[in-house]
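Check my protein:
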Amino acid sequence: MKQSPKSKTKFKLDKGLLVRIHDLMVKTRMLEERLVRMYKLNDGYFWIGGPGEEAFNIPLGLQIKKGEGKDYDYLHLKYRSSGVLLTMGADPMDTIRQMKNTATDPYSCGRSFVNHQSIRSWNVIPITSPIGVEFATSIGTGLSQRRHGGEGITIVVGGDAGTAEGEFASTLIWAARPGFELPMLIIVTNNNWGISTTAASQHGEKWISDRGKAFGMRTLTINGNDVEESYFAIKESMEYVRTERKPVLLEALVSRLYGHSSASGANFISDEEDPLVTFETNLERAGVLGREEMNAIREKYFAEMLELSKKVREEPMPDPSAIYDYTYFGQKGRYW
């Protein structure tokens, strides 16, 4: 199911946007690789992230209607969505704080794994470790936005393995009820793996997106390693959901460059397509950016992420007395 790299000498997107996408892709990759280094240097704890999904995540982040409340997009993301949030303006230092589990981690005060963000002011619903949970919670905001109207939509992103969970089926049912459809962009990023289980041993259907056809919803499968294909597919799908107030099931074929997580070693997988390498090769062929320029950008972000990680080392760790805080909303201390 993997897509072969596409050779391009021309782009449809304008040069300014291509340069911006490349910058964000490199920034995201350098952040993720810094997190992996922190894990391997025993400078952080459990790592899980999304190297290999940048060619899809950055185009997605660029087109989100960011804000708080029903007039804006609700985001039910997964722990491989760092590129989406960096593109929206998230501070990479906050992600490094969560990797280190410092008390200064703004998403969980050091309580969650890295890339488990929660940003209320941007409608980013708390990211959780159990797969499939994001599908269940997305039904609620989808229903709320159907009643509210406007152009805000619910965007939910899950992985291919998560589609085996009942929550995914529930989302398709609720999103597609005739006459009561929900304004939802349902995204499955398919990297062909469920931890260490191959998709080929689990999926009888050719494409996961085909499941949406039984519910009468619009579906498509794209090469998520291609920046332009991702950008235009997301654009078209968002426009449809915003105007028609009906769901779209979008499957993006992506890579998983460092395995599932630190649980599997977080080692680079050389036989996966690297979408950043593919994009840079095409940018150079098209005369958009030169190799020296691209190398300079990589070096800049490498140094920036290293410096941020050094600063985070000096920040305080959680006080043991705070272990019971926030078990429930507003809770401080132990409840008896």
Notes: The two ends are 53 Å apart (CA to CA).
